[in-house]
């Protein structure tokens, strides 16, 4: 095992239902987590980055039935599409788990279930409630909302709930109310941003009820992990799905990965959307406490992407394909938009024009143009030769450390702002020093080389700083700005300005 003196960070994303093709909102979550994983690796941390799919959902079963396909085959086909996002989004997963197919998963779920049972935290009782298939969750009457002329609708999906009555296994969530409040209020379980921390605490302080953690085999359509020693029930999808964070580490057979990356990690970070905050801030930590296991150190919550003010959702059909966006505009433009424009707490409306404008302004006109100006002049005035070892201009000192610090804390907008301020400072320096004018005087050639060397060093420092955000663009920049045997390669465009084709609503 590597030295414990090197910080270890375990980063996960929420695993999605695979009832339809992935949409842009989930792509944002993946990129956000990937940026942090890349940055921490670059800073010397040991990092394990996990993705996956949530296969055992009634939503998946219903979607398969609607498609006229076998559930297992349908789920496997859609799951592969989610895993394939790693290519177009330039993701650096270290592991990826399909919960219905990965042999690590079921033993871990069963072990967690038995641990809770042995502690006395599981019991059977009759239950009747309002069930939302979309959330896979029961809602109290007072939590429901009216939508148009329809009453008893889910507050998240705004669709009618189903009245369900059956006998299920329940988890004693109420037993952990005080512990959960203490963990979150003390920041031993950090919920970020702060507004979501307050939301989680408010929910806990209102009082926690025990929760159903199984479904009848009939209602689950026989799809799911059976409850140990109770063949009439399947384990509730959220108990099953949340366990992926440790099943992928071999919790089921106490693998070394589990000891290293869960028990021994310095940070255990879950990146999730705001709609599943309660599962990650309340239910999941309680399940872990019941098993005597450490809880996550941080739950990083993000808002939604919307289109025309409507949440992107596979179920509602309001979707934008991340693969199509990448095909049209490139991975760098999309990743930069996610980091630069998506708000930390408020929903952000996506349009192709916003993405185009942001990429053109920052990547093409900003750093791309500055790079081209400097490299072109190096070739025209200095024959491509550069002095190595120069320091960046004073106004941009520490840009790499500042960007890395912001990314480490998931403040991606701050990270991009720092980088853009450095780019602006570089362009102002070029305009103020007028190296093209100095190049006209042969007696000032040493002054010119010193100036261009510092400007090159500045552009290169910014490129290295933003590599976790836009890795391909940054690598092109570094190649253009780095000398080989004391000479730069010929200047070439590092980012082509984007034009918008006729794309309709997207």
Structural write-up:
The chain is of the alpha/beta class. The protein is 45% helix and 17% strand. The strands form 5 sheets. It has a 6-stranded parallel beta sheet with strand order 3-2-1-14-15-9, sandwiched between helices. Strands 5-4-8-10 form a 4-stranded antiparallel beta sheet, with helices on one face. A 3-stranded antiparallel beta sheet has the order 11-13-12. Strand 14 (267-273), helix 10 (277-290) and strand 15 (298-302) form a beta-alpha-beta unit. Helix 15 (412-433) packs antiparallel against helix 17 and helix 17 (445-465) runs antiparallel to helix 18. The chain is elongated. The two termini are 47 Å apart.
**What is the tally of helical segments?**
18
List segments where confidence is low: pLDDT < 50 over at least 5 consecutive residues.
none
Strand fraction equals 15-25%
Helical content, roughly? 40-55%
Strand order of the largest sheet: 3-2-1-14-15-9
Structural class: alpha/beta
The dominant shape is: elongated
Instruction: Tell me the span between the first and last alpha carbons.
Output: 47 Å
What is the rounded Rg?
A: 26 Å
Strand count: 18
Largest β-sheet summary: 6 strands, parallel
Mean pLDDT: 93
List the helices and strands and how they pair.
Layout lengths: L7 E6 L10 H19 L3 E8 L4 H10 L3 H13 L11 E4 L6 H14 L3 E11 L4 E3 L5 E3 L2 E4 L8 E10 L5 H9 L4 E3 L1 H12 L5 E2 L1 E3 L9 E2 L2 E6 L1 H6 L1 H4 L8 H8 L3 E7 L3 H14 L7 E5 L2 E3 L2 E2 L10 H8 L1 H11 L6 E2 L2 H31 L16 H10 L3 H22 L1 H4 L6 H21 L5 H11 L25
Parallel strand pairs: 1-2, 1-14, 2-3, 9-15, 14-15, 16-18
Antiparallel strand pairs: 4-5, 4-8, 6-7, 8-10, 11-13, 12-13, 16-17
